[in-house]
Amino acid sequence: MPPSYNEVTSWKPSNLVSIANGIFALKASLDLEAPLAGNPVLDLTPAEWTGEARGPADSRAESVTRWLRNVADEYGDLASAATSGAANIESAVTTLKNATEAAGDQGYILDRGSREYTVTFDPNTAPSGAEYSADLAFQHQTALRAHGTASDQAVTDTKNAIESALSEIGGITPASIATASGTMTRTTNQAKAFEQVYGYMPATANDWRIAAALDPHSYDPKNKGVPPAISVIKIRPVPGQGVVATGLFIPIDEVIAGMKADKPLPLPRNLGDNREFDVNFAPEDTRVSYFIDYENGVIVARQNPSVDEHGNVKTGTPSVKASQLADGTVAIVYEGSDPLAPEIAADLGWSVNGQTIVTPEAGGARVSGEATDYPSMETYQHLPDGRTEVLHRDDAGDHDKTGPMLNLKFHHDYGDYDNDLDRFPTEKYTSPGNHSYPIDLGNITGMTDLGSADDPPELEGAR
């Protein structure tokens, strides 16, 4: 099914041109540097250096120059793919816009959010005396849908051309600097994951933040390629609020995971994230993270693999639910357990859990909630204009290896949590014989489970 008119016209192919210009500049620099690369060796006179090693050294210097020229050519192909792709996408988008306006002039109005490209007849925009024609409506719908499909194909063709060019660059990259190829692979994986959910390629900085969260791969060597657990849900957008990102992380290198009932000593240990607060934290540098994309109406939650001191790796299955009020306020309830922890940890209720409420306001969002006393927690708002606001930072109460054992059982509130929670319907308990004084349990009712990125559910009542 093709993307809708609204999705197609939200694309920004001009961003590809900006990227291509930077790549062309890189190619020009390589073209200039290539003949100079071997000069420190080639310029040495026979009097300055002679002997059996001189010939191989000259050959090596010349090969470096050839390699740089090849790299410059490949970057030129990459820039050309991006430039041509941008032009093709822009042309396809313009064609769809023009066809939509032409249909409207005939009275056939496109439902711009429909992927079926449904049209309805409006006599107010039709020529005088014109009446509804089922055949003409079908023709317009078919043509507009074909233009939508062509726009989608232009993006796919551009993506394939760019991936092919990147593959060529990776193929001529020496093993000593092959990490660049890994970076290209990660970028491609993130773009594919984003496109699967959104229907178009990431373009903005916030798009790439979400793309990183959606990427179903692990890149940190300690994770040994074991994938994270990712869940998604669609909500009602609140334009202007950007992305609100929350990460929960272990600030030290390793922690005690609990105590085994049959073998008290030595105490098993799991690896931590070993970092400080970071406004641009990578999703993989957390235990649990969740991102509210207010611009597009998507929530992404992620739990990364757990790794123990012996190199065992396993990913748990978190429970994440969401709810949204009419003003756009979002509540997220999460619980993520360590899948490598001893069974006694689960029996005692040791898990990273809590409830976050994000309220969008004119000056930016504010956040409140309830969280376990461990691990550390951070929430930032990345606004569409590029500004980042720190909404909440909560340092783990204990930076010692015993932190989880001593603190996971305890909770604390932050922000204006009681008042924010009062705006949601909550579960109440009425004890027998005491019907006049029900007890508010603080659990929001009617929440929706996040689901698969392959087919994300829509939050009940969100649209």
Topology:
Elements: H1 5-9, H2 14-33, H3 39-42, H4 54-105, E1 108-110, E2 119-121, H5 134-171, H6 179-198, H7 205-214, E3 229-234, E4 243-249, E5 254-256, E6 269-271, E7 288-293, E8 298-303, E9 306-307, E10 313-314, E11 319-324, E12 330-336, H8 343-347, E13 352-359, E14 366-372, E15 376-382, E16 388-394, H9 403-407, E17 411-414, H10 417-422, E18 426-429, E19 439-444, E20 448-449
Antiparallel strand pairs: 1-2, 3-8, 4-7, 4-15, 5-6, 7-8, 9-10, 11-12, 11-20, 12-13, 13-14, 14-17, 15-16, 18-19
Describe the structure.
Residues 175-181 have low confidence and may be disordered. A hairpin with a 4-residue loop joins strand 7 and strand 8 (298-303). The chain folds into 2 domains: 5-177, Substrate Binding Domain Of Dnak, Chain:A, Domain 2 (Up-down Bundle); 205-449, no CATH class. It has helices spanning 5-9, 14-33, 39-42, 54-105, 134-171, 179-198, 205-214, 343-347, 403-407, 417-422; strands spanning 108-110, 119-121, 229-234, 243-249, 254-256, 269-271, 288-293, 298-303, 306-307, 313-314, 319-324, 330-336, 352-359, 366-372, 376-382, 388-394, 411-414, 426-429, 439-444, 448-449. Helix 2 packs antiparallel against helix 4 (54-105). The radius of gyration is 28 Å and the shape is flat. It has 463 residues and is an alpha+beta fold.
